[in-house]
Design goal:
Elements lengths: L1 E2 L21 H6 L1 H4 L7 E2 L35 H12 L3 E6 L6 H9 L8 E6 L10 H8 L38 H19 L2 E6 L6 H12 L5 E7 L9 H5 L7 E4 L5 H12 L5 H11 L3 H13 L15 H12 L3 H13 L5 H8 L3 H13 L3 E4 L2 E4 L2 H10 L2 H16 L7 H11 L2 H17 L3 H13 L5 H18 L2 H13 L5 H17 L3 H11 L7 H12 L9 H18 L2 H17 L4 H10 L2 H4 L2 H18 L2 H18 L2 H18 L5 H10 L5 H18 L2 H18 L2 H17 L3 H18 L6 H13 L6 H11 L6 H18 L4 H15 L2 H17 L4 H16 L2 H13 L21 H11 L4 H8 L3 H15 L4 H7 L1 H5 L3
Parallel strand pairs: 3-6, 3-7, 4-5, 5-6
Antiparallel strand pairs: 1-2, 8-9
Helix pairs in contact: 9-10, 9-11, 10-11, 12-16, 13-14, 13-15, 13-16, 14-15, 14-17, 17-18, 18-19, 19-20, 20-21, 21-22, 21-23, 22-23, 23-24, 24-25, 25-26, 25-27, 26-27, 27-28, 27-30, 30-31, 30-32, 31-32, 32-33, 32-34, 33-34, 34-35, 34-36, 35-36, 36-37, 36-38, 37-38, 38-39, 38-40, 39-40, 40-41, 41-42, ...
């Protein structure tokens, strides 16, 4: 990882001049940790390393400041309800409101949001800050707030009583009446000041007086607030913020008996996990995985101030590992708060709380008593004291630290030797507990006690237990701790590294395991068998991270080292046998690896290994379009081996569903995915969840279920994925959707970017499909030469793999482009080559394309078979469930029929129009509508305007502008017709073109056929 330049330098908090005024130096210094804009640095992955966990966005010179990650959240998170309640209270004076919550919960942030709230634009918001000073300045926060109102004071309207404030506020004395004669008694003088402050607030109204950190207010300020509560003007609202741990404010009773009504008390709650995720996204500019957000919530207690400090620390600590939070340093500001609370406890209570911090966040009274060697009574008393000062709290009737960072502060306050000794005592006490030994806890304490032998033993036991419970991720974590430890003997680390390689695959611990296994392999001096196993494990992880070529080559390198381990060799060969992942290997090589895998499986005599090889064989046959694939798949699905192994069952169904989609069997893919989801529910197979979601998206795309697919695909692309390779497939879907529903320029840009990345990583399937999709798009926009080039490159990939079941669409694009260019010299031999290579294959997409290509060629020669071939192509795609391709074939059939006087062409075009309308494929819809209009075919009423199913919601004005533009009027003429400005017309035109997916007025006319034809 490398450091980039800082985004923001130190700058003061900005507030509206009319509401809050400049902040005092004391305030800014005291709250520097919560009000400053932090000095941030961004990090990005170096080189071609796989995406590990989550990464921060790269910032370049052309980014605007608004697009950069911000050190403070650009808006409140999880506080909409609270903000609404406060807004209502301030807008309906007279009102008294108290906002309470623990330190860092966001009270000040809420106040700042109110100060800038447009809904309060007619109200003056004055903010005073109560200081934690040894010698408080009487009425200081109120006077500071009133001074901010200088621009709003109208001297000619002030009552004489307000002059009592002049000696106390020399900065604005010139705006006030002369001070009255000094009162003889102190009480009378104070009463004059209270009346003056109240009168000035009434003069300024509507006004909100906000005092922050009222728990630190001086007695004079509390007296003034009590006076104000009983003499509150009708146009004045009062809002106080206070910490719950400081106890009730001295004004609570006065506020409860106020003539205007009792004070409203709003208690701010910590953020939940979803809100933590949103808070982090607004600061970092990227989405965190849910598991990281959950861990952040656990660490910070959901307190925004603590969360912000933690995120700052994360950025500074190179966030390369999901377990970084385990070793996260506590922010200094929070440490000071926690240590201050700890210091208020008596020595015995401090000692007991310190022991509790060693044991766990949740306090076990009996265990704590044993380790601390203190009586239960002493422990209970210490817990009560710690709760009183806010270190501990009750959670479901059990005491625990307020949040994980509070525990960490106390823990780090202990001397290192004391911590080590306490961990050793804890391990002894826990091992003496009745029942099975809690190996995970014992491993934790043994490691921190420096007992390496016990640590390794318990960590391995914990990993074993996790595996038996199906939690490979937890098992990988335990093994990682051992393998990473420099205190563990190298031989032991190697032995457990092999286990780590096995469980990390399914446990999704790739980000941590990959660099560890890489270092071990680079170190050399490994036994061949171990080296082969580590290479195989690392190769699989790299493939799952999206590094197809690197992973494939590493697995291939592992084979010579595995000749004495047939079971592992068979599994490695089975992975190599699947053809759709990597560039450069011909299907003959994949078939050879599959045969070797079957031989190794027979030698291994292991049913699980044999099952894995049969699954791979079925996948290989399926990608070739071999009809024997389905017989083998049905045989494996019906056998006891798959039934008794739910993980392999789920994985197999997902892999076969992907293969089915590649050749055009959408209905079969649907059935396989349904089976995979059912099995996954009882298998608890974490690894396959994300892949199932992705393949479901791909199936929905092919099947034409596009209602919510765009949002789901975008979310999949935007969210950091457990499998880097899955993001490529998601980006393919994103580009394909854009090609039909969005901007052609954006679609081409997205597809070209994907092509570049897929080539670099060596991933054949997204690369082939992306080139084909781009070729089809370029044909649509009549960029024939570029379309021909992309289709030819896609066909080169097919030839290199030898998988002609994938060749249908590339060949068809080539044929259509060459016919349009009137360059047909080579297309006949190409089409016949396609036909020869898919003869007897069960590949609907390829066969439909072959029929269309032959129909195009026959049409040039007047062959009577054209109509039959086109109709058969439509039927083939309909049976397979490939909706978009079916619509295109129906469009082609309809156009041919109409051009030959066949009235059935109208029905074919209507069918195509319906398919494209249901999908929301605006570009195709407009093209068919134009064809129908040219032939005088009325557009069915449900599709007129392309609005209902296309999801296009034009406003009435946008539709008026679009209809006039479709009729041929210029923007100037439209402006005159509708009495609009030119700028307004241009805005409406831009929105209409975007919503209808049109690039020109001509396409706009096609998207509004009812306006063009006069239908109503």
């Amino acid at each position: 990882m490398t450091l980039s330049s800082p985004l923001f330098a130190w700058c003061p908090l900005r507030v509206r001049p009319h509401s809050a005024g400049p902040l005092s130096g004391r305030y800014a210094e005291k709250h520097r940790g919560s009000i400053r804009v932090l000095h941030w640095t961004l990090l990005k992955a170096a080189g071609s390393a796989p995406n590990q966990g989550w990464e921060l966005p790269e910032i370049s010179a052309h980014h605007s400041p608004a697009s950069r990650p911000s050190s403070t959240a650009p808006g409140l998170v999880g506080r909409d309800r609270d903000l609404g309640l406060l807004r209502t209270a301030l807008r309906t004076p007279p009102s008294l409101t108290i906002v309470e919550g623990e330190a860092g919960i966001g009270k000040s942030r809420l106040v700042r949001e109110l100060a800038d709230d447009p809904a309060l634009s007619g109200m003056l918001v004055l903010i005073g800050q109560c200081e934690q000073l040894h010698e408080p300045f009487p009425l200081g926060p109120v006077l500071d707030a009133l001074q901010q109102a200088a621009p709003a004071i109208r001297p000619e309207s002030l009552g004489a009583v307000t002059g009592a404030l002049a000696p106390l506020m020399p900065e604005i004395a010139h705006l006030l009446p002369p001070p009255p004669p000094a009162a003889a008694e102190e009480g009378a003088a104070r009463h004059q000041v209270f009346r003056a402050a109240t009168a000035l607030l009434e003069h300024l109204g509507p006004v909100a007086l906000v005092l922050e950190d009222a728990h630190w207010a001086d007695s004079g300020t509390f007296d003034l607030l009590s006076f104000l509560a009983f003499h509150q003007p009708a146009n004045v609202a009062v809002l106080l913020t206070t910490r719950v741990e400081s106890g009730p404010l001295p004004v609570v009773e006065a506020f409860a008996r106020a003539p205007a009504g009792p004070a409203k008390v709003l208690t701010l709650a910590p953020l939940d996990s979803a809100e933590v995720q949103e808070f982090s996204r607004r600061i970092l500019g990227v989405d965190l995985p849910a598991r990281v957000a959950d861990e952040l919530r656990e660490k910070t207690g959901g307190i925004p101030f603590v969360l912000e400090e933690v995120l700052r620390t994360l950025l500074e600590r190179l966030p390369e590992r999901p377990d970084l939070l385990d070793s996260l340093a506590v922010p200094t500001a929070l440490r000071d708060v926690m240590l201050q609370r700890l210091s208020t406890l008596d020595p015995v209570a401090r000692e007991i709380v310190g022991v509790a911090s060693v044991l766990a966040r949740r306090v076990d009274v009996e265990l704590l008593s044993s380790v601390a060697e203190r009586s239960t009574r002493e422990v209970v008393g210490a817990i009560a004291s710690a709760q009183a000062v806010g270190l501990l709290q009750d959670e479901n009737d059990h005491p625990q630290f307020r949040h994980a960072l509070a525990q960490q502060v106390v823990y780090e306050s202990l001397p290192a030797t004391s911590r080590r000794w306490l961990h050793e005592r804890a391990a002894v006490a826990i091992s003496a507990l009745p029942g099975a030994a809690p190996s995970a806890r014992l491993a934790y304490h043994s490691k921190r006690a420096g007992n390496t032998v016990q640590f390794v033993r318990y960590a391995e036991q914990a990993a074993d237990l996790a595996v038996t419970r199906g939690d490979d991720s937890a098992a990988a974590r335990f093994l990682l701790e051992v393998v990473e430890s420099g205190r563990v003997p190298f031989a032991t680390r190697l032995r457990l590294a092999a286990r780590l390689g096995r469980v990390a695959i399914d446990g999704l611990a790739h980000a941590e395991a990959v660099p560890i296994l890489t270092r071990l392999l680079d170190g050399g001096s490994l036994e061949p068998a171990l080296r082969g196993e580590l290479r195989f494990a690392l190769g699989r992880m790299l493939r799952q991270q999206g590094l197809a070529r690197a992973g494939f080559e590493l697995i291939r390198l592992s084979l010579p080292d595995l000749h004495d381990r047939p079971a592992l060799a068979a599994k490695a060969l089975a992975v190599l046998a699947v053809p759709e992942t990597v560039l450069g290997a011909h299907v003959r090589e994949h078939a050879d690896w599959c045969e070797q895998a079957e031989q190794a499986a027979r030698s291994a005599e292991d049913p699980d290994v044999e099952l894995a090889v049969r699954i791979a064989r079925a996948s290989l046959l399926l990608e070739q379009g071999d009809p024997a694939a389905w017989r083998l798949i049905d045989d494996v699905r019906g056998g006891p081996a798959l039934e008794s192994n739910p993980r392999e069952h789920a994985r197999a169904c997902v892999n076969w569903a992907q293969g089915a989609l590649h050749i055009g069997h959408v209905h079969r893919a649907d059935a396989l995915l349904a089976e995979a989801k059912q099995v996954m529910a009882r298998a608890d197979y974490v690894r396959v969840v994300g892949v199932i979601d992705l393949v479901t998206l791909a199936t929905d795309f092919s099947a034409g279920r596009w209602d919510t697919i765009s949002e789901r695909v975008d979310a999949f692309v935007d969210q950091p994925a457990e499998f880097g390779g899955a993001v490529l497939d998601a980006r393919l879907l994103q580009g394909a959707l854009l090609a039909s529903t969005g901007s052609a320029t954006e679609a081409a840009r997205a597809l070209r970017s994907l092509i570049q990345d897929a080539e670099e990583l060596g991933a054949v399937w997204p690369l082939l499909a992306a080139r084909t999709t781009l070729a089809r798009l370029l044909l649509t926009v009549e960029d024939l030469e570029a379309a021909l080039e992309e289709a030819a490159r896609a066909l080169d990939l097919v030839r290199a793999k030898g998988l002609w079941a994938w060749a249908g669409e590339p060949v068809q694009c080539i044929v259509e482009a060459r016919v349009a260019l009137d360059d047909v010299a080579q297309i006949e031999s190409l089409v016949e080559q396609l036909g020869a290579n898919i003869e007897g294959a069960d590949a609907p997409l390829a066969h439909a394309a072959l029929l269309s290509c032959r129909a195009i060629m026959a049409h040039r020669t007047g062959d009577a078979e054209v109509e039959r071939m086109l109709a058969e192509a439509v039927s083939t795609l309909h049976r397979a469930g490939v909706r978009l391709a079916e619509g295109r074939s129906a469009e082609r059939l309809g156009g041919f029929r109409l051009s030959h006087g066949d009235d059935r062409g109208s029905a074919s075009l209507e069918s195509a129009l319906g398919i494209f309308g249901e999908l929301g494929a605006r570009r195709e819809f407009s093209r068919v509508a134009r064809t129908m209009r040219e032939h005088g075919i009325a557009i069915p009423s449900r599709w007129r305007g392309g609005r209902r199913s296309l999801g296009v919601e034009l406003s009435e004005r946008e539709r008026e502008v679009a209809e006039l533009a479709a009729a041929g009027l210029t923007n100037k003429e439209i402006a005159a017709e509708l009495f609009l400005s030119m700028r307004t017309v241009e805005s409406h035109m831009s929105k209409a073109l975007h919503k209808l997916g049109a690039r020109s007025r001509r396409e706009l006319a096609d998207a509004l056929p009812d306006a063009a034809t006069g239908d109503s």
